[in-house]
Amino acid sequence: MKSSLEIFDLETGACSVVLTTDRLIEAPNWAPSGDHLVVNGDGRLFRVPLSRPELQEIDTGFADRCNNDHGLSPDGGTLVISHHVEDGSCIFTLPAEGGEPTRITEKTPSYWHGWSPDGRTLAYCAKRDGTFAIHTIPVGGGEETRLTDEEGHADGPDYTPEGDWIWFNSTRGGTMQLWRMRPDGSEQEQMTDDERINWFPHPRPTGPEVLYVSYEGGTEGHPRDHEVELRLLDPRDGTIRTLEPVFGGQGTINVPCWEPGGRRFAFVRYARP
């Protein structure tokens, strides 16, 4: 599996390659410092310095089954990971430079996706009572709060830069489309309604646009090795721009991937068989 870690520039519309590797890497997360990316691969996490790109393994202690749901805190000091324990994925935090993880969610499976701008709350999708729904929990752990109760699969929560909305994707309308709601779960509204299958919305740090990955109609789940499109939605008027066709899907932009300045974002493209 050849992976190409790339950056898309909104001003120029051009892609640049950060690095390529023969291993499977996924889900780039841009550090708040702006100088490196974080990706996962083979159950581990890696730092990729932009000045001299290479995969530098991050010490995650016992957590050697990390999936592609990970990210850095708004201040850059803490790394959140989703690591598979005996009965499913569980959310942990650890120092950004590496160290022993601290368990945050007691229930499984839980998959992290968003960090509130004030750094106090984690948003994630979790399967409870047979249904994947959106939940939040204090960053230090405690009682989780379920925000979505409707039938269907809800996934991929990510906060707007002001923290006034959580964007997510849901099948409650029949197919996977983009939605948003207030941080307390109120005012839930559908934001896309087309023939595509839309996943993983990421609000732009400088607003108001939202980046997401779009599959062809009829696609089940969010598989890898598909022809997808990276799209940008303007919620003010519903305008959608197709930015880049990509061979990818799962692993391309699963987690927040914008640079702090909001001009560029990182993504992973895979080699066609």
UniProtKB/TrEMBL annotation:
<dbReference type="InterPro" id="IPR011659">
    <property type="entry name" value="WD40"/>
</dbReference>
<dbReference type="Pfam" id="PF07676">
    <property type="entry name" value="PD40"/>
</dbReference>
<feature type="compositionally biased region" description="Basic and acidic residues">
    <location>
        <begin position="143"/>
        <end position="156"/>
    </location>
</feature>
<protein>
    <recommendedName>
        <fullName>Transporter</fullName>
    </recommendedName>
</protein>
<comment type="similarity">
    <text>Belongs to the TolB family.</text>
</comment>
<dbReference type="InterPro" id="IPR011042">
    <property type="entry name" value="6-blade_b-propeller_TolB-like"/>
</dbReference>
<feature type="region of interest" description="Disordered">
    <location>
        <begin position="142"/>
        <end position="164"/>
    </location>
</feature>
